[in-house]
Design a protein that fits this description.
- The protein is an alpha/beta fold.
- It has helices spanning 14-25, 44-54, 69-81, 102-111, 133-150; strands spanning 4-10, 31-37, 58-62, 87-90, 116-118, 162-165.
- The chain is 39% helix and 18% strand.
- A 6-stranded mixed beta sheet has the order 3-2-1-4-6-5, sandwiched between helices.
């Protein structure tokens, strides 16, 4: 696997961060993780610090307040672009994005010379965790809207599982 960074924004992910990071670290030696924590009151930041101490492939950015998912990703990308990663992923910490799919994203990017590969929660059935029906319907409606407006065949344009190739 090429030099790859997984950016994981966190807020109150104390229960998920260690198992997710362990799963990612078991995959490939070229894979690294950047946790971007928004000052989680549940101790997520402390857990991230422990993971950094235990594994040199885990990194953490501590932000002083809950400042939003988009800004967490911007901070993560700024950090990543200062380093030499070939692939940079956006990924949730709650296991709604399956780490086992990471090699498939990279293969797809290589095979189709794609700079961006998007994951979808709707290609093979519906795969969402702990969502109220209203949120799922809103996501599906957004996908239909994007298809109509752009003519592009997105199944999940609002999804957060993405792979960018540098």
């Amino acid at each position: 696997m090429p030099n790859t960074l997984i950016i994981i924004p966190t807020y109150n992910e104390a229960d998920n961060l260690r198992p997710m990071t362990e799963r990612l670290m078991a995959m490939e030696p070229a894979l690294e993780v950047l946790v971007v924590d928004d000052n989680s009151p549940d101790g997520t930041g402390d857990i991230a610090d422990g993971l950094v101490q235990a594994n040199e492939r885990v990194h953490v950015l501590h932000r002083h307040e809950k400042d939003g998912l988009g800004r967490a990703y911007c901070a993560g990308f700024a950090w990543a672009l200062e380093r030499d990663y070939e692939f940079i992923f956006e990924m949730d910490c709650d296991f709604s994005h399956d780490p086992a799919e990471i090699p498939r994203f990279i293969e797809k990017s290589d095979a189709e010379d794609a700079d961006l590969v998007l994951g979808s929660r709707y290609c093979e059935g519906i795969r969402v965790i702990n969502w109220p029906i209203s949120r799922m319907l809103l996501s599906l409606a957004a996908a239909k809207y994007v298809k109509v407006i752009t003519g592009m065949r997105f199944t999940d344009p609002t999804g957060g599982f993405k792979c960018f190739r540098r």
